Each structure stands twice: as structure tokens, then as C-alpha cells.
Amino acid sequence: MIAIIDYGLGNLHSVKNALDTLGITSQITSDPKVILQASGVILPGVGAFEDSMKNLKERNLVEVIRRVVSNKTPFLGICLGMQVLFERGYEGETTEGFGFFKGEVRRMVVDEKIPHMGWNQLSFTRNDVLIDEMQEAYVYYVHSYLATNYDSEDLVGYSNYGNLQVPGYFHKDNIFAMQFHPEKSGEVGLAMLARFKEVCDDYSTSN
């Protein structure tokens, strides 16, 4: 079972509907016991970095997420749920994130409309377990902030938006992170979620 963390922010039901479409068992929950027993965990999110970390702290979920990651359970952050995995964010007050990835989250500076919203081509820097050797794909974004000063070795995919390269997909160890919304990205996004489920199954088998 995949746990979808409910912390008061995020497209919880659109993520669950996508998993339901794939026949993947999931549960929307803020129960630490359920989250820690899951074969995989998804942290969705829509909103501000500062509010996200505040809500996670109020629900005593920060340490739970750290335990999930240290246990090597497959973990997927989506949109805002991706951004808080970096060291800090500058949306609202400067706020410390989880620091699982090196880097900071800052407002986009681009010669195009903000927010960056809609379909965009995702190009890959390397092969990855969730992309099944896809050379390129189109995915759906909705965001005004993005990861900066990150470790290029963690980056798997990016999109070009005006004069800006938008980092779209990171992966390090058991942590997957997508700035775009796989649950809104059609067959490509569903394929990535299906591969995430396979990673979760492999984890369950080995533990």
C-alpha cells in the first residue's frame, strides 16, 4: 500500500485517482503508523513552502518523513512536496526544508509568464528507473518557484521555459522528486507512477 500524506496542502485526491486508475492500492493519511508501514510514500503539495513546513510540523510529520527516508522506503515528492525536500525555501519567510537534496527553492526569474503553467517538454540527463529509457516526454507544470543551486548529479529531467532551464525531476537513493504533476501528465505521468509502484514492490519484497 502506498501512503499519500495529508498535511492540509495538495492535490491529494487527484494523486489517489491516478493511482486508482492504475489499480494501485493507496491511502490518504496523516497517521504516522500507516505512513511508516507503507511500501511507498507520496508527498503531494500545492501552496507555499513556509506553510508546507508549518503544517508538517503541526501534524508531527517531519520526523515521520525523516524516518521513512532513513528506512529506505521509496519516497516521492510532487510539486511543493518536491520543493520542501531541498535545504530551504524563500517563499514567505526563509524556511528550512528537509535537506534531502542540496539546493534552495527561489521564485522563478524568467522572460515568460509566471506561474509556469501547462504542458512542457521534459528532457532527460540520464536514464532512471521511473522513465524506462524515455528520450523525451511532455508533462504538466503549475509553479512559480523552482530548485536552484542543486547538485547536478541528482537531476534526471528538465524543461526549458523561456530563458530558463526548469529542473523537473530529481532522484537520489530512495527519494524521487518531481516539480511537474505526474498525476496530471497523461500516459507519461501514469507510466512513471506505475514504475514507482514497481520500486515499492521491490522494496517490500526485500524487507
Question: Can you offer a commentary on this structure?
Answer:
This protein has 207 residues and is of the alpha/beta class. It has a single domain (2-94, 102-206), classed as Rossmann fold (3-Layer(aba) Sandwich). It is 29% helix and 31% strand. It has 6 helices and 13 strands. A 9-stranded mixed β-sheet has the order 2-1-3-4-13-12-11-8-9. Strands 6-5-7-10 form a 4-stranded mixed β-sheet, with helices on one face. Strand 12 and strand 13 (175-178) form a beta hairpin. The chain is globular, with a radius of gyration of 16 Å. The two termini are 14 Å apart.
Which tags fit this structure?
single chain, 207 residues, alpha/beta, Rossmann fold, nine-stranded mixed beta sheet, four-stranded mixed beta sheet, 29% helix, globular
Number of helices: 6
Structural class: alpha/beta
> Compute the gyration radius: what is it?
16 Å
- Percent in strands: 25-35%
Quote the distance from N terminus to C terminus: 14 Å
**What's the CATH first level?**
Alpha Beta
As for the CATH topology, it is Rossmann fold
Superfamily at the CATH H level?
Class I glutamine amidotransferase (GATase) domain
Order of helices and strands: EHEHEHHEHEEEEEEEEEH
Gross morphology = globular
The profile of the biggest β sheet is: 9 strands, mixed
- The CATH architecture classification is 3-Layer(aba) Sandwich
Q: What topology, given as strand order, has the largest sheet?
A: 2-1-3-4-13-12-11-8-9
Mean pLDDT: 95
Q: How many domains would you count in the coordinates?
A: 1
Helix content: 25-40%
Poorly predicted segments: none
What's the β-strand tally? 13
